[in-house]
């Protein structure tokens, strides 16, 4: 029985995608024999609970873009009525950990916290997500983390200098190591060839002056939040101890808060997707932070180990053909 599309509160019902791979004339049962752990006791007659982020999410856009559901990134009506909407990357993980029959997706930089909470990472098209498989391109469910800054600081040259210096810091060896340590995927050669902060700090006169009364506002993607928090905490000690205020509500807020309808509410915004046609950053105000992958996951009690793009499509699409776990596992 289908359920109406609903929004799920924290700990209610979130997840990562999971399923199977292989070839079969029956899409619903594709690769079941090689895509599940047969030692797990699991009721396959139960309906699948597909979990999804809201339409403001860059992770949602990236995921649906890879499973031939691009239009569903901004339109819930194109999703199965059994889908449930969660508010953030953290909510997704929490709900996956508590709903045995859910499936969902989240950012690669959250793998550690997800597995710690009881979420199982599922391979996609037969490839396990890792830094190596993401850098090599073998794991195809990837996207960029991007940033955007204000293009008008209203004459506040101190704040503008701090923001400019922060952007430069992200590209230093120290900054890239922080990004990598917190789940961002960076090619080791890029880190090896990056300058240190000591080598470029002179380009920002006065950056080490006392800035303890200056607040820099960060926001945007929840998937990039931990990276942003760690970068700002580290850089604040090098830039006069400015106050880093974080308010992450989704990728859509990055452009609107810096250069869009709510311009000025954010000094730096982060996106876990590319800019769309209505988001055109001013020249030299945006760029790529690192590569990230979208991870498909299920509850640790679920026997699924692999899923294909076609199976994901048929789980999430309004006209999809996969409704219960038996449709996948057989």
Q: Mind explaining what this structure looks like?
A:
There is one protein chain. With 330 residues, this protein is an alpha/beta fold. It folds into 2 domains: 6-142 and 293-329, Periplasmic binding protein-like II (D-Maltodextrin-Binding Protein, domain 2, 3-Layer(aba) Sandwich); 144-292, Dipeptide-binding Protein, domain 3 (Roll). 29% of the residues lie in helices and 18% in strands. The chain has 12 helices and 11 strands. Strands 1, 2, 3, 4, 5, 6, 7, 8, 9, 10 and 11 form an 11-stranded mixed beta sheet that branches. The two termini are 19 Å apart. Residues 6-33 have low confidence and may be disordered.
Question: What's the arrangement of secondary structure elements?
Answer:
Elements: E1 6-7, E2 49-53, H1 58-65, E3 84-86, H2 89-98, E4 102-107, H3 111-117, E5 119-124, H4 131-136, E6 142-149, H5 157-170, H6 173-181, H7 188-193, H8 197-200, E7 215-220, H9 225-236, E8 243-247, H10 252-258, E9 268-271, E10 286-299, E11 306-307, H11 309-316, H12 326-329
Parallel strand pairs: 1-3, 2-3, 2-4, 5-11, 7-8, 7-9
Antiparallel strand pairs: 4-10, 5-10, 6-9, 6-10
What keywords describe this structure?
12 helices; single chain; alpha/beta; D-Maltodextrin-Binding Protein, domain 2; 330 residues; 11-stranded mixed beta sheet; 2 domains; Dipeptide-binding Protein, domain 3; 11 strands
């Amino acid at each position: 029985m289908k359920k109406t599309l609903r929004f799920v509160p924290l700990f209610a019902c979130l997840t990562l995608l999971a399923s199977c791979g292989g070839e079969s004339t029956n899409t619903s049962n594709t690769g079941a024999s090689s895509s599940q752990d047969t030692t797990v006791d699991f009721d396959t007659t139960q309906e699948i609970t597909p979990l999804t982020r809201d339409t403001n999410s860059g992770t949602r856009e990236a995921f649906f873009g890879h499973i031939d559901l691009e239009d569903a990134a901004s339109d819930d009506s194109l999703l199965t009525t059994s889908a449930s909407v969660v508010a953030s990357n953290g909510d997704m993980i929490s709900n996956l950990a508590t709903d045995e029959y859910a499936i969902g997706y989240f950012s690669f930089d959250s793998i550690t916290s997800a597995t710690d909470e009881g979420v199982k990472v599922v391979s996609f098209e037969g490839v396990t997500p890792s830094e190596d498989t993401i850098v090599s391109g073998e794991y195809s469910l990837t996207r960029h983390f991007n940033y955007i800054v204000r293009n008008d600081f209203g004459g506040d040259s101190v704040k503008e200098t701090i923001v400019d210096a922060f952007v430069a810091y992200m590209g230093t060896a120290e900054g890239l190591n922080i990004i990598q340590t917190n789940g961002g995927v960076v090619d080791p050669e890029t880190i090896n060839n990056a300058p240190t902060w000591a080598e470029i700090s002179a380009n920002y006169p006065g950056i080490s002056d006392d800035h303890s009364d200056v607040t820099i506002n960060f926001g945007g993607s929840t998937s990039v939040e931990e990276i942003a928090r760690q970068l700002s905490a580290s850089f604040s000690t090098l830039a006069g101890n400015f106050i880093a205020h974080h308010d992450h509500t989704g990728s859509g807020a990055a452009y609107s808060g810096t250069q869009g309808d709510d311009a000025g509410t954010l000094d730096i915004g982060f996106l876990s997707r590319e800019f769309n046609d209505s988001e055109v950053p001013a020249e030299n105000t945006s760029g790529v932070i690192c590569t990230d992958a979208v991870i498909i996951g299920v509850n640790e009690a679920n026997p699924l180990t692999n899923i294909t793009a076609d199976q994901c499509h048929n789980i999430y699409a309004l006209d999809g053909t996969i409704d219960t776990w038996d449709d996948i596992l057989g």
